[in-house]
Amino acid sequence: MFTMCQPLRSKANLVMLFKGYRRFVRTTCRVSIPGGSLGNELKAPPRFLRDKKIVPDADPPHKEDIHKLYQLFEQSKRLTILTGAGISTECGIPDYRSPNGAYSSGFKPITHQEFTRSSRSRRRYWARSYAGWRRFAAAQPGPAHTALASLERAGRIDCIITQNVDRLHHRAGSDPLELHGTVYTVMCLDCGFSFPRDLFQDQLKALNPKWAEALESIDHGEPGSEKTFGMKQRPDGDIEIDEKFWEEGFNIPVCEKCQGVLKPDVIFFGDNIPKERATQAMEAAKQSDAFLVLGSSLMTMSAFRLVRAAHEAGAMTAIVNIGVTRADDIVPLKISARVGEILPRVLDVGPLGVPAV
């Protein structure tokens, strides 16, 4: 899917389509529309995901905005999509920067330097990640993921780049370029050996049988007791663990090949995206005639530079996101809406050659 692009046709039509157009919608209410045009029933997320108030409020998509997006899909020949955390909050996975995001509760993500330099930090990270994995992995693709997979199969999308590490695009049927990696793979920092996260979870369970028992206790309504090692479910779905239990009592597997340090195959804050992957994403951006951002504030430079490169190359750029983004000053089309509400409505506007899912 990510191949060198052929010379582009004129981008003038797309540029004229959105010239001088910018719409900002103040968010005030919550509406959820699954989108019947996709031809399938979306699997309902678990209750603990549905109940979490992690998605910012938003007005229903404006009809004019829906038609503008439809025209973008209809007229572009090389459309690149960049997705961010906003597409996954609708599936129950918290983001960082929205009003209800992880930062709002004082959460600070681990940095690459902390993970690599401190065994204590690694123990804390893996203890919390092990405890929260089952719930994280229970998330299902939303209407936005499904709509994008349909548009991709119909040939309306040239490539999808995602900042997310949750593999929800894959579950919906897409095969995106994962800019920041994925938590579904674990890798060795010393020899590069990698293997599936599920196998790592089994290793953690074998090394920490009392922790596995503690997680079952949480599910059965005994949070915070000594039996649960001080684990308490936080409102955003994370697991709060008393420091005295994980600091010395949690065992971490080592690499089976070289006994090295194991890390999730994701780009932590302070780390760099592999050069080949960054080049691949940049080429896709520069070769596009339209670049659409979905659910991202673009606050990381790795994402912002892609939009900027597409804009400078003459592509039409557009953003669908609730809240301010780093690229608001350079994009001609900005829509404040939930991605999972507006994309299904775009498919309802007219024929885009989208097959039933």
Automatic annotation (TrEMBL):
<dbReference type="GO" id="GO:0070403">
    <property type="term" value="F:NAD+ binding"/>
</dbReference>
<keyword id="KW-0808">Transferase</keyword>
<feature type="active site" description="Proton acceptor">
    <location>
        <position position="180"/>
    </location>
</feature>
<feature type="binding site">
    <location>
        <position position="188"/>
    </location>
    <ligand>
        <name>Zn(2+)</name>
    </ligand>
</feature>
<feature type="binding site">
    <location>
        <position position="191"/>
    </location>
    <ligand>
        <name>Zn(2+)</name>
    </ligand>
</feature>
<comment type="similarity">
    <text>Belongs to the sirtuin family. Class II subfamily.</text>
</comment>
<dbReference type="InterPro" id="IPR026587">
    <property type="entry name" value="Sirtuin_class_II"/>
</dbReference>
<keyword id="KW-0862">Zinc</keyword>
<dbReference type="GO" id="GO:0008270">
    <property type="term" value="F:zinc ion binding"/>
</dbReference>
<feature type="domain" description="Deacetylase sirtuin-type">
    <location>
        <begin position="60"/>
        <end position="355"/>
    </location>
</feature>
<dbReference type="InterPro" id="IPR026590">
    <property type="entry name" value="Ssirtuin_cat_dom"/>
</dbReference>
<keyword id="KW-0496">Mitochondrion</keyword>
<dbReference type="Pfam" id="PF02146">
    <property type="entry name" value="SIR2"/>
</dbReference>
<keyword id="KW-0479">Metal-binding</keyword>
<protein>
    <recommendedName>
        <fullName>NAD-dependent protein deacylase</fullName>
        <ecNumber>2.3.1.-</ecNumber>
    </recommendedName>
</protein>
<dbReference type="GO" id="GO:0034979">
    <property type="term" value="F:NAD-dependent protein lysine deacetylase activity"/>
</dbReference>
<feature type="binding site">
    <location>
        <position position="255"/>
    </location>
    <ligand>
        <name>Zn(2+)</name>
    </ligand>
</feature>
<dbReference type="InterPro" id="IPR003000">
    <property type="entry name" value="Sirtuin"/>
</dbReference>
<feature type="binding site">
    <location>
        <begin position="321"/>
        <end position="323"/>
    </location>
    <ligand>
        <name>NAD(+)</name>
    </ligand>
</feature>
<feature type="binding site">
    <location>
        <position position="339"/>
    </location>
    <ligand>
        <name>NAD(+)</name>
    </ligand>
</feature>
<feature type="binding site">
    <location>
        <begin position="295"/>
        <end position="297"/>
    </location>
    <ligand>
        <name>NAD(+)</name>
    </ligand>
</feature>
<comment type="function">
    <text>NAD-dependent protein deacylase. Catalyzes the NAD-dependent hydrolysis of acyl groups from lysine residues.</text>
</comment>
<dbReference type="GO" id="GO:0005759">
    <property type="term" value="C:mitochondrial matrix"/>
</dbReference>
<dbReference type="InterPro" id="IPR026591">
    <property type="entry name" value="Sirtuin_cat_small_dom_sf"/>
</dbReference>
<dbReference type="InterPro" id="IPR029035">
    <property type="entry name" value="DHS-like_NAD/FAD-binding_dom"/>
</dbReference>
<dbReference type="InterPro" id="IPR050134">
    <property type="entry name" value="NAD-dep_sirtuin_deacylases"/>
</dbReference>
<keyword id="KW-0520">NAD</keyword>
<feature type="binding site">
    <location>
        <begin position="163"/>
        <end position="166"/>
    </location>
    <ligand>
        <name>NAD(+)</name>
    </ligand>
</feature>
<feature type="binding site">
    <location>
        <position position="258"/>
    </location>
    <ligand>
        <name>Zn(2+)</name>
    </ligand>
</feature>
